[in-house]
């Protein structure tokens, strides 16, 4: 398996584009993205668990009752959530897109991200979608990745190439992350494409299984958005024997999918709102996978741990505190904690008790911009990793004045 | 019922004191508090739900197997948690206190607050407890309230006077709050005294019932501490017929208790680490009390809502988002949201959709230092209030460098 260029256009048969259509006031900022597969693709998606759902989520769920699609359209700058005519507008955008591409409105996946509860008008879409479709190209992943950014500071796109049944297959993805990110089942906006031939049922299964260990293990701020969505299109153009059951090919596909999603997770966490550091929490030797995940996510979500990491402060007591309220029944006196970065590794807690360590050495390790918190529960053999970021002045600044 | 002066010494038969004994380096900062009732008092307590528990919690739980006590001792500057000899030290502190007061070690309630995982030595207690006991006085509540402060910026103490069976009864309390506060069942450190005659069983029942609507409804940072404790002593010196069942007298006692605890809650929330504003979330017309509490606590805990309040930004979409992930099954299209302060009230969301409102007027309201977020679920008749604070640069600053 190799990482390759091209993002969502790396797999065969996909084009993409991104334009400024006028949802945002700033004309320099693209605000509308489109991904298109001429060949109808198997489609799978997972959605936010927030019971307040954006209109695009509701429309996409309806469209994917038949799990095939040709296109993904996404705007930034407005979440189209809690708007009285939101569903009507989202339906209208699908219809405009379908008309331009010569497909059915129900073959369009739609997503929106931005402020909640601001009216969204159809006019920018009416004027923007023709040019957006016109400009679709096999090098357009970049423009699409740019158009879905909100407070993101870097574009998130990547692709891998791998082999199934002697055929070269590819998976590509773009994502937006940043704030209101504490996914539960689904998450933020992630659009994946593949040319692998795979049935809709196996595609949904793979996506769901993967998300539990990838996107659902990120937390930026414990806020689960109303508009989270991860979706994948699989148009089958790689020509591999279609994956219709679990087996070697399914496992190969999942491995490739995991390579893409875990890298996207890291880049989303590292680019969390205001973040200065990527924090990875690795929990080992847990009694169960569920326990490992709960502990890792609890630590990564703690405002106090996040603040300590911002200050490069080896305050491991806060790590233990977050383990303690994770809901997992842990034996405190078996827990080891180490901090690790490119500068080395230092153990700070052994069997639940503090040990002597060099504060200066710990500081050196924690001053890096990618930190790993390693927790050994010594209670079994399961492990999990969660990703987050530090809590900084800038998070507060960005979110104290987001709408202006 | 009247609010009166005197804190924990307002009820008959209580003395208190606070000194600097050397746990903290700064000699200006008191670090050891003592509350004493010469007459043995019925005692009740509730504790942190964190499965990593401080040694003082474990020792107090054991001491209160027989639910009577004479004294509460508490140090700040060190949590005595995750220390190999923590239980031995906590037991030693109880023994020193008991010796000085002429009581049994098992009649001492012990609590600690401060950094987790730093060794705690007995020497400062050996040298400090005699002077601490010597200086006990009926005007010592103030000194005790000061000695339990950590990053608190104001002392929290108050008392009420009320009548039961023709007898004047009193309840007094001191508290410390600030950081690592998202109580679950129990909370932070709150020490309450009363001269009301009440059985230990009814005292525990009253305390538990009250905490579910008071301390368990505060969140500063979603971090549930390892050392939270709320305890109450009731020495019966008011001379009322002892409360031994539910009934008018029990209801009167609970009303007075609630007056004390809700005020302490507000003062803890308002003095949250780095906080500039007290945020109160009032949920009305919920389908059940449980729903009302879950929604109120979810909103008050949202980093995004807290950041918006810091920025005086009427970003009500974040409020709806937090309602949505509260776990309560809400009908979005019935929800109304208003913001309120001493400057007035403004509705921003009606039936789940944004309504036109004056941003300038909203800003004026939100610039106050006590904000109420009012959420009408229009789904029933239950209501609840939760208390929190805004998320500020100072929270990050304080917690990025807490240990230094």
If you compute it from the alpha carbons, what radius of gyration of chain A comes out, rounded to the nearest whole angstrom? 22 Å
Which parts of chain A are unreliable, with pLDDT below 50 for 5 consecutive residues or more? 183-187
* Total of DSSP H or I helical runs spanning 4+ residues of chain A: 11
Overall, the morphology of chain A is: globular
Q: In a few lines, what is going on in this structure?
A:
The structure is a homodimer of 404-residue chains. Chain A has 404 residues and is α+β, with helices and mostly antiparallel strands. Helix content of chain A is 31%, strand content 28%.
Polypeptide structure, described:
Two copies of one chain form a homodimer. Chain A is an alpha+beta fold and 404 residues long. Chain A has two domains: 2-270, L-amino peptidase D-ALA esterase/amidase (4-Layer Sandwich), CATH 3.60.70.12; 278-400, Roll (Ubiquitin-like (UB roll)), CATH 3.10.20.340. Chain A is 31% helix and 28% strand. In chain A, β6 (156-164) and β7 form a beta hairpin. In chain A, α2 (86-101) packs parallel to α3 and α7 (289-301) crosses α9 (316-324). In chain A, 63% of the residues are buried. The interface between A and B is large, with 64 and 64 residues.
């Amino acid at each position: 398996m190799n990482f390759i260029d091209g993002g969502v256009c790396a797999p065969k048969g996909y084009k993409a584009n991104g334009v400024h259509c006028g949802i945002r006031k700033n004309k320099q900022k693209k605000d509308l993205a489109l991904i298109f597969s001429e060949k109808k693709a198997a489609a799978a998606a997972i959605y936010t668990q927030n019971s307040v759902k954006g209109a695009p989520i509701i429309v996409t769920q309806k469209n994917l009752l038949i799990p095939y699609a040709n296109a993904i359209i996404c705007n930034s700058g407005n979440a189209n959530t809690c708007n009285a005519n939101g569903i009507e507008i989202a339906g209208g955008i699908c219809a405009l897109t379908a008309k331009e591409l010569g497909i059915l409105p129900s073959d369009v996946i739609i997503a929106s991200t931005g402020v909640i509860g601001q009216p969204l008008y159809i006019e920018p879409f009416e004027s923007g979608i023709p040019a957006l479709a016109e400009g679709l190209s096999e090098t357009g992943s970049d423009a699409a990745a740019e158009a879905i950014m909100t407070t993101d500071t870097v574009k998130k796109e990547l692709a891998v190439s791998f082999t199934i049944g002697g055929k070269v297959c590819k998976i590509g993805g773009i994502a937006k992350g940043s704030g209101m990110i504490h996914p539960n089942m689904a998450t933020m906006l992630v659009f994946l494409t593949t040319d692998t031939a795979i049935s809709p049922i196996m595609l949904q299964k793979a996506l769901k299984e993967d998300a539990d260990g990838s996107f659902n293990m990120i937390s930026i701020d414990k806020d689960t958005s109303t508009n989270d969505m991860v979706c994948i299109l699989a148009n089958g153009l790689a020509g591999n024997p279609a994956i219709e059951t679990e087996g070697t090919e399914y496992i190969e596909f999942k491995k490739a999918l995991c390579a893409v999603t875990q890298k996207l997770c890291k880049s989303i966490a590292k680019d969390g709102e205001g973040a200065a550091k990527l924090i990875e929490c690795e929990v080992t030797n847990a009694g169960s996978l569920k326990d490992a995940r709960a502990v890792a996510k609890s630590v990564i979500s703690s405002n106090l741990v996040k603040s300590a990491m911002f200050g490069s402060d080896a305050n491991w007591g806060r790590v233990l505190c977050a383990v303690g309220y994770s809901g997992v029944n842990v034996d405190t006196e078996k827990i080891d904690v180490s901090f690790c970065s490119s500068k080395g590794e230092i153990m700070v807690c052994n069997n639940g008790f503090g040990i002597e360590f060099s504060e200066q050495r710990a500081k050196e390790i924690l001053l890096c911009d990618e930190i790993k918190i390693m927790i050994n529960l010594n209670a079994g053999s399961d492990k999990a990793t969660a990703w987050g970021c530090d809590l900084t002045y800038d998070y507060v600044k960005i979110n104290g004045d987001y709408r202006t």
